[in-house]
Q: What sequence folds into this?
């Protein structure tokens, strides 16, 4: 005979706000960088991987459109998510934020939504900047979408540099020195208010403060900006100076 056991509930989990993070199947980086921040102040994240090609082109990015809602359903089925982040900068500019948010709202209608580009644009707004330097790993056919999206949002791209690499495994292996040198080379002799390093596969969150000190202006990356935005959307106002100027906002 099986004995019936009584139990009580730990209410701390019920009081915790939840981030649902849709991560590309080919992404080597975002989970590692988010885990450095969460859980924090009753805010944690849970993720599911969306099927995608490791070769980044407008066509492969567009192919994720019909998979967003079904992937989101894999994160804590039956529970409420307070914030949902779609972890792909390039797919967001190809598909549009409205398309991404509509897919998210079809599963979690009351969730607050973000993407890396949404978060980056919010960061530009917070710093009240106009002239942006953009660094990407993408090839020209994707860079065009990034450039037009940022300019359409009201910002000047005063400098643009790219590693011109379309394979996610290679992008994830680009070292910090290459990124620092790439930024310095791109912004040399240019009037720049802020640097945005695009792509969730880029590993750089630990080096943002170092680069800011080197070039004297704010810096953010796709993961850096979206993690900050998730925190602020969740009502967490913690200031984390070890992560650079954005996390003081």
A:
């Amino acid at each position: 005979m099986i004995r019936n056991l009584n139990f009580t509930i730990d209410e701390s989990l019920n009081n915790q706000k939840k981030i649902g993070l849709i991560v590309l199947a080919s992404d080597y980086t975002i989970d590692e960088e988010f885990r450095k921040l969460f859980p924090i102040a009753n805010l944690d994240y849970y993720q599911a991987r969306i099927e995608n090609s490791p070769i980044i082109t407008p066509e492969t990015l567009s192919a994720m459109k019909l998979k967003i809602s079904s992937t989101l359903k894999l994160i804590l089925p039956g529970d409420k998510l307070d914030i949902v982040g779609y972890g792909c900068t390039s797919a967001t500019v190809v598909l549009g934020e409205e398309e991404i948010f509509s897919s998210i709202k079809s599963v979690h209608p009351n969730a607050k939504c973000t993407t890396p580009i949404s978060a980056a644009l919010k960061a530009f707004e917070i710093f009240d900047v106009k002239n942006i330097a953009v660094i990407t790993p993408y090839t020209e056919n994707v860079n065009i979408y990034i450039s037009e999206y940022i300019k359409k949002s009201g910002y000047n791209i005063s400098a643009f540099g790219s590693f011109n690499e379309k394979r996610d495994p290679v992008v994830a292996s680009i070292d910090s020195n290459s990124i620092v040198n790439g930024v310095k080379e791109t912004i040399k002799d240019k009037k720049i208010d802020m640097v945005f390093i695009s792509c969730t596969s880029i590993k750089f969150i630990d080096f943002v403060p170092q680069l800011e000190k080197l070039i004297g202006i704010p810096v953010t990356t796709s993961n850096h900006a979206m993690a900050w935005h998730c925190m602020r959307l969740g009502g967490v106002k913690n200031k984390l100076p070890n992560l650079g100027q954005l996390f003081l906002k």
Observations:
- The two ends are 59 Å apart (CA to CA).
- The longest helix spans residues 140-152.
- The chain has two domains: 15-116+226-238, 118-221.
- The beta strands are 17-24, 43-50, 83-87, 112-114, 131-136, 156-162, 194-197, 219-221.
